[in-house]
Amino acid sequence: MSIRSFRRRWQVKTGKVDTPIDGEVPFWIVSLAFHLVVIIFLARIMMPDRESKSVSLTLDEAIEEIKEEDVPLEIQFDELITEDIGADGDDGFEAAAAQAPMIEVTSEDTIDLDMELRDTAELVTDNDPVDATAETLAIVPVKGSVGNSVKAASGAVDRLTQEILMSMQERETVVVWMFDQSASLMRQREEILERFDRIYEELGVLEAAGHRSFASGGDQPLLTQIYAFGSKVKPLIRDPTDSLATIKEAIQSIERDSTGIENVMDAVMTAAKQHASFRRIDRSTGQPGKNVMLIVVSDEAGDDVGRIDEAVQICTKYQMPVYVVGVPAPFGRGETLVKWVDPDPEFDQSPQWAVVSQGPESIMPERLRLDSTGTFDDLEMIDSGFGPFHLTRLAYETGGIYFAVHPNRTTKREVRQWETNSYSAYLRRFFDPDVMRRYKPDYVSNQTYFARLKANHARDALVKAAMFTTTGTLESPVLRFEKLDEARFVATVNRAQQTAAIVEPQIDRLYEMLKAGEEDRPNELSLRWKAGYDLAMGRAMAAKVRAESYNAMLALIKTKLKFDPPRDDKTPQNNTWLLVPADVVETGSQDTKLLTKAKMYLNRVIDEHPETPWAMLAQRELATPIGWKWDQTYTAPPQPQQPRPNNNNNNATPRVPQPNVNAIPKQKRPPPRL
């Protein structure tokens, strides 16, 4: 259509002489068209092609690559399970039930929302990068919840009841319980068994209220299967059932596995595969037939954790969340001491302590073995705030929940060893779950974890230093030197110097390892890695000052130091040197500067990470003076051995009551493999 024809039609229809293209308007249209062409051309240049798969976010003018596991979504219930919620709370199950349906979706870390999206994008998973389209983002799995603490397994079951009921609101559900067969889990199984009535009581209330889960007229909305696992895995019910009597009978039939082996990943994968048919998609609805929930009950880390990637893949494939009723992992330790009392009263009932694998909470060591005297043997048993790494990662990556159960859990005071409940690990200190949840370990694959270490030298340095301190134990320094005999005194000092000559280079090497990551420390964003590196750096520098000061003090004792004269004629001459901790550094200004820097690191941990294991260890480090001073005392010389009295004379010594020979002490059995 020509411009003239357009003008004529406009004038006929509107009755107006002027048209939009009269005067200078055509030039505006030409300009608009020109700029549109330019904008489209620039957009084509800036637009990523289909092969480009980079997505980044600019945060506070620092561009960081976003990976799916870096900012996962995490489901958290508003109530955070603590010692006051669940079976042990004042309001019991009803309080937990009233709060449980409240859900919020949060990211792994706190992120400033004032960020710029660059024009290129990438969605990185543990496998291959994929296009960051709406479709791919929609299928990113929602991460589960960790750092949930309860005092009793029944409290975890109360919360699981809510998870089951929520699943039933979506569709019919199959719950698969997997119990380990260890002797230490016997009481916990009994406690959970008693709590099963609660689940079915809730179902009865729903059914009576005409809940829509019961309105279809089809199968029962909840079916249950029971597995037992140890060195082998076996189902205890032929087919999933809704019979509470059958379920209880199956749990009561679980026998102890004397091998002590717990193949937990094998149990999870077996259960997932054998119930995969319930997840088959119905072509008419496009939905799976039933939901399947996997619940693991175990008090160990497991013996086949090397299969974690395979287990995560299978459960994610079938979209089966894994819930774990487990134990808290000790902070930075792989093993704990579990209190065992023989369940048979015919045997000795005195407590015994068995070594059990219940940790660590991270994929690699992230805590130094280092005590205040510079030996590689300090790993105090305290709560990490999380469960054993692999089991917790399984729950987290499949959208489940890990419940850390310990009957002695309290954040109000330290727990003494004798207070530890039977079949429980001794943990001296517990921490607030609300605080610890911000210090979640990196629940990722080995490949991703080591890639993150390479990306930040501070992380890499911390893990290398932690590994270095696990390779051996340095001999504790000698702190008492008796000068009863000159030759023996000199020999004792010489041996101490030889030991110090071994310790000091080891401490120096540890310090240099950590110093290599100092430049990257300001780039670290994770609270957990910040706390870990700062604590390690502060402790390593303190140990270096102590080691060098110790050597210098030994040199003084051999040549320059003299004992003080006695105060009076009745006071013996001092003859023993004591090396005691003191805030005195006599090895030069370099060590004085290092001491100041060590205190800066340790105080920063206390200020920035209060009420955490890192802050507790930093406080303890500062409580021990970082230096030495000589003190002196008197040691009585050994007395010559006196001849023994003549026992032929019965009147020479009083008669000692003899124990009743008829009283046979109870036999003491060693603890089984727990």
Task: Give your account of this protein's structure.
The model is unreliable at 50-140 (pLDDT under 50). Helix 8 (264-274) packs parallel to helix 9, helix 9 packs parallel to helix 10 and helix 13 (457-468) packs across helix 15 (527-559). The longest helix has 33 residues, at 527-559. This protein folds into three domains: 3-46; 73-107 and 144-330 and 381-455, Rossmann fold; 457-633. It has 17 helices and 19 strands. With 674 residues, the chain is of the alpha/beta class. It has a seven-stranded mixed beta sheet with strand order 6-16-13-12-7-8-9, with helices on both faces. Strands 2-1-5 form a three-stranded antiparallel beta sheet, with no helix packed on it. The protein has a three-stranded antiparallel beta sheet with strand order 17-18-19. The protein starts with a helix and ends in a 41-residue tail after the last strand. Strand 7, helix 6 (186-208) and strand 8 (222-229) form a beta-alpha-beta unit.
